[in-house]
Design brief:
The structure holds two protein chains of two kinds. By secondary structure, chain A is mainly α. In chain A, 64% of the residues lie in helices and 0% in strands. Chain A starts with 8 loop residues before the first helix and ends in an 8-residue tail after the last helix. The relative contact order of chain A is 0.11. By secondary structure, chain B is mainly alpha-helical. In chain B, helix 5 crosses helix 6 and helix 5 (95-117) runs antiparallel to helix 8 (197-219). Classes of the chains: A mainly alpha, B mainly alpha.
Chain lengths: 196, 227
């Protein structure tokens, strides 16, 4: 792993994994340490708190399976690309979608595989609270706009947000600015009602 | 501009600023959101399990299939795709033939998974040659679809993937992991492959991604392998 403090941690870990300096397992653990809170944050604003813990493990299961066969296209081998963060963003998006699909199919996801009490605190996410501005975003913005906001806050490149949501990059920027404007108005007027 | 007009404009701006209408548009809310996000990450850091628990569930299999579809849609929706449909990608198959081939396996794998879900045995065998895999079955299935427009083939992949996802939620979770003989076998011995429904999802993803990779290589003008 590079010692250059300017390099994003992801870049160093991925490079070390691709060169063989870090094993699959060791590099996975480092990426988990780096990004687990971000994944929790994304899920906490997108799904009900009772679903976060299982979906969190699902996202890391999917990532682990991909990480074992990870291929880094040369065009993503740049400091700004952050392909792992982008992959996790995309997987959280798909996990939330699959979760809602599962609910619609009347198959209770929770309870099928209760969290292992040895590996995770009980009701992990019950202890999380969202600050007012994030709570407002969740309450007043459409789910995709919340994804755009939280993707941007975590540093996911706009191109990858656009790819995940199957919209254009200018549309991401436009909706990001619109969502900020809506929230600014809400803050000014005390957070009452939905702004059109 | 007359001095009077400038003063009027400045006065107007001053009133708007006084009423909070001229603050720089994004700064306060952006700062608030960044701070809220940081607080959330700090809370999450304290609550994050020290290790991840890797386990496959219907939802993880569903995500894999959905990710696959998303990757296909990127290809289908590109301008390049429409212009290259009739171009040879391998020595035998055009791009459209490859889509027909993927459609045939989307249907076949979902069908076999459905048979396993009922606890039944697959009553036929697709022979998988050591070199070239199921050549005759592949050729037959692509030929069957050759007259169909590509939109129908894409529709088949979308529909069959959705049906596979529905199946994953419809069966009891342990059944997803029960390994049984499937309808693919080695020629000569006729020995069937052993797979679970989850294993069929893995096969489907591996197979589709191999073709996606080749299509992307072709798009980038890089050499690709044969089937």
């Amino acid at each position: 792993m590079s010692d250059d403090p300017e390099l994003p941690a992801e870049h160093g870990i991925v490079s070390a994994r691709m060169s063989g300096a870090l094993s699959v397992e060791a590099s996975f653990e480092r990426l988990y340490q780096n990004y687990a809170p971000v994944v929790i944050g994304w899920l906490a604003v997108r799904v009900e708190s009772s679903a976060v813990e299982n979906l969190f493990q699902d996202v890391w299961t999917v990532f682990y399976q991909r990480w074992r066969i990870w291929q880094q296209p040369p065009e993503l081998n740049t400091l700004a690309a952050r392909p792992v963060l982008s992959f996790l963003f995309r997987t959280v998006h798909l996990a939330a979608k699959a979760h809602h699909r599962g609910k619609q199919a009347h198959e209770p996801i929770e309870g099928l595989d209760p969290p292992d009490p040895g590996s995770a605190p009980q009701r992990l996410l019950d202890a999380l609270t969202l600050s007012r501005s994030l709570e407002m975003a969740r309450a007043h913005c459409c789910p995709e706009d919340v994804e755009i906001l939280t993707g941007k806050l975590a540093g996911v490149p706009a191109k990858e947000i656009a790819r995940t949501l199957a919209i254009s990059e200018p549309a991401v920027d436009h909706r990001y600015r619109n969502a900020l404007a809506q929230l600014r108005q809400l803050l000014q007027y005390g957070g009452r009602g939905r702004i059109g | 501009m007359a001095r009077e007009m400038i003063e009027t404009a400045l006065q107007y701006d001053s009133q708007r600023r006084h009423h909070g209408m001229l603050c720089r548009p994004e700064e306060p809310i952006l700062t608030a959101l960044q701070s809220a996000w940081q607080q959330l990450l700090e809370q999450a850091s304290a609550l994050t399990p020290s290790r991840s628990t890797i386990r496959v569930r219907p939802v993880t299999l569903c995500i894999e299939l959905e990710d696959l579809l998303a990757e296909w849609r990127e290809v289908w929706n590109s301008e390049w795709f429409a212009s290259e449909l009739d171009e040879l990608i391998t020595s035998e198959w055009t791009l459209k033939d490859i889509i027909a081939h993927v459609a045939s396996w989307s249907t076949e794998m979902r069908t076999q998974a459905g048979i396993l879900a009922k606890g039944s045995a697959v009553g036929y065998q697709i022979l998988f040659e050591k070199v070239g895999g199921p050549r005759s079955w592949n050729a037959e299935q692509v030929a069957l679809r050759r007259s169909q427009p590509v939109e129908e083939l894409i529709g088949e992949i979308e529909r069959e993937t959705a049906r596979f996802q529905d199946l994953l939620y419809a069966v009891e979770q342990p059944i997803l992991f029960v390994e049984r003989p499937i309808g693919i076998a080695m020629p000569g011995t006729g020995e069937p492959w052993i797979r679970s429904i989850a294993g069929i999802v893995e096969m489907r993803c591996f197979h589709d991604r191999m073709h996606l990779h080749r299509i992307r290589q072709r798009r980038l003008g890089r050499p690709i392998g044969e089937n």
